Amino acid sequence: MSSQWGLVTAAQAEQLGISRMDLSRMAGAGLLERLLHGVYRDSSVPIDEYTSLHAAWLSLYPKKTADERLMESSYDAVVCGQTAAWLLDAGDFIPEPYRFATPVRRQTQRSDMRLRTRAYPSGSVVLREGLPVTSFPQTVADLVEQGADLSLVSDMFLQTGFNGLTAQSRQQLIGLLSPLAKEHGFADGDGRAFLDQLTGPLNRLIVQRLKPVCESIGQAVDLTPLCAEISEAVATSPAWREMLERRQDSVRQIARKVIDVSYPKISPDWAESIAQSVVPSVKAVSVKPSQREDGQSNEE
Fold it and tell me: Domain for residue 75, yes or no?
């Protein structure tokens, strides 16, 4: 029990010579607590928010210990779907009924559990609270595939931020979303565009948070020292545009450095995209009109 979160199944106890009647007597004496059919908890072990999920996972293969199951070459039951999102602390999903994926078909009559037949590659499974659970990218793709509200899926990115969107996981997401893109209104196989839509709220939040910084950057990249060039440029618009482009490029470069420092896990292509998007938010620096020799003012 010490290696299984203070839990034991009736099948495990029977293998040690402890009958179901013995378990019932121990429960009656307050030594054990019956959590669900065939699974008991040591009453001296504190209960937490994951206890019922641990018990449900143990009940799927009650004769095997948790250690035996976790040491196998492939997991016999993986937490998935909404339960996985909850376990990963990603988004606003209710874990019940508990959802598990098993590589071979299994059935259950329990109303608080849902099973699906699917085997995941090792790269799509991580361990959380001692349980195998689908990774963040895989969980996102599973929820999309199962028809979850896309606004709730987008909220997953808002909650996890860049912890869930490293350069590696971003590429995994693009690959996982590509087969689902067409049915959601994107070009066939365009997982990148689909991901951009899902991460749109996160992108906007980042731009909003960076806007004050970028406005300060804009103030730093002032045009005032270039008044002579500005006066000349007024008469030749191509030169004026070129000068503005140089300023915008300076803002973009500094914004990119700010993003790289603030969000070190972000992928380079995404960082560049955000840096480009914050440039238009920088207000133009006003330059006071200068007096020409003829006493007339130049336009700003």
Answer: no
Residue 80 · residue 99 · CB < 8 Å: yes
By residue range, what is the domain housing residue 28?
1-55
Q: What is the pLDDT along the chain (300 residues), one digit of tens a residue?
A: 989 999 999 999 999 999 999 999 999 999 999 999 899 999 999 999 999 999 999 999 999 999 999 999 899 999 999 999 999 999 899 999 999 999 999 988 888 899 999 999 989 999 999 999 999 999 999 999 999 999 999 999 888 876 667 778 889 999 999 999 999 999 999 999 999 999 888 888 877 777 776 666 655 555 455 555 555 555 455 655 666 677 777 778 888 888 877 777 777 877 787 777 776 655 444 444 444 444 444 443
Please tell me the total count of domains within the chain.
2
Amino acid in the structure at residue 88: L
Tokens of 151: 């606004």
Do 64 and 55 meet the contact criterion of CB atoms below 8 Å apart?
no
